[in-house]
Amino acid sequence: MVVRHINPEGLHRSPAFSQAVVVEQPAKTIYIGGQNGVDAEGKVVGPTVGEQALQVFRNLALILESEGASLANIVHWRIAVVEGHSFDEGVAAFQQVWNRADPPPAITVHVVSALGPGFLVEIDAVAVV
Amino acid sequence: MVVRHINPEGLHRSPAFSQAVVVEQPAKTIYIGGQNGVDAEGKVVGPTVGEQALQVFRNLALILESEGASLANIVHWRIAVVEGHSFDEGVAAFQQVWNRADPPPAITVHVVSALGPGFLVEIDAVAVV
Amino acid sequence: MVVRHINPEGLHRSPAFSQAVVVEQPAKTIYIGGQNGVDAEGKVVGPTVGEQALQVFRNLALILESEGASLANIVHWRIAVVEGHSFDEGVAAFQQVWNRADPPPAITVHVVSALGPGFLVEIDAVAVV
Lengths: 129, 129, 129
Known about the structure:
Three copies of one chain form a homotrimer. Chain A is α+β, with helices and mostly antiparallel strands. Chain A contains two helices and six strands. Chain A has helices spanning 49-65, 88-97, and strands at 2-6, 20-24, 29-35, 74-82, 106-112, 121-128. In chain A, α2 links the parallel β4 (74-82) and β5. In chain A, α1 packs parallel to α2. The longest helix of chain A is centred in the middle third of the chain and has 17 residues, at 49-65. The termini of chain A are close together. In chain A, 50% of the residues are buried. Chains in contact: A-B, A-C, B-C. The interface between A and B is medium-sized, with 30 and 30 residues. β2 of chain A pairs antiparallel with β3 of chain C.
């Protein structure tokens, strides 16, 4: 597999994301459905974006670990936050779980009207191994 | 092609979706743009989420059939519903078109402010054959 | 690589998008994160959807050119526009940058509550080479 995180000249750079990720010859591609801040029983873990985002990252990691992968294998994730809430706490949760030595995924962030009942944040992702 | 629908231990399970879908060696990957509840002339089929969702599933099936595939080949779909509307009727439409023997795709659901004029639901998808 | 843009019988046709794009044997797949109407320093280029959309297309092109590709290599893009704004100016920008001889990508359009501060439009994309 070849994966290159690219930040071409002429575009701004951020430590939080790569502008794009180029993938050649993946052994497998993992399509991860929107993860929410819920535990193994499907119960929402708490009423804040911070708590929910941390659980979302845990769920993403758990799925990836079951395939011998980790968060570092994500090439693009799409984050949705419910209107009226900031993703600042989500960024803090990201910094808590992310290994700074790994180049970050491409990212999309939308503020939406709502998600499932009680959910404030949802992240889906494509990962390659 | 190898496709595995995964629901790792430690995550809740639902009959409506898989937590993730792992794809190896696809013969082809089909990127399907957002489908709406419109007929062959592009006319909205009706004013309810249920009618529109059923038409969306028909359109998805039609696209997939043209490639020798079916809804079961979808690995991830992203559903958008317009604010003020519930996707409950969409779930009913899903149960009508979905073969329960097939493991369901990974799923993302967003409630958005609006879609194109008259559209209440839009579903895009990635399918592999 | 084999890429086919499909518009099966029974679905309406539009010059603005393909219903789906089928990809076989890509040399590489490029996952492009949500691009906004910002310049090389990350500054928003202007307060209108038209200005921002044109810059988004420039940023997408710049990323693709760095990989020896062009906008024509995009197979699916997802457009988000902020509530209260129309994408009509974005369509005009698209017509300005798009080579009409190329079959257009599959498309998804959502009107969302908000994007990052000052952003009115965001487009992410998958491209294949």
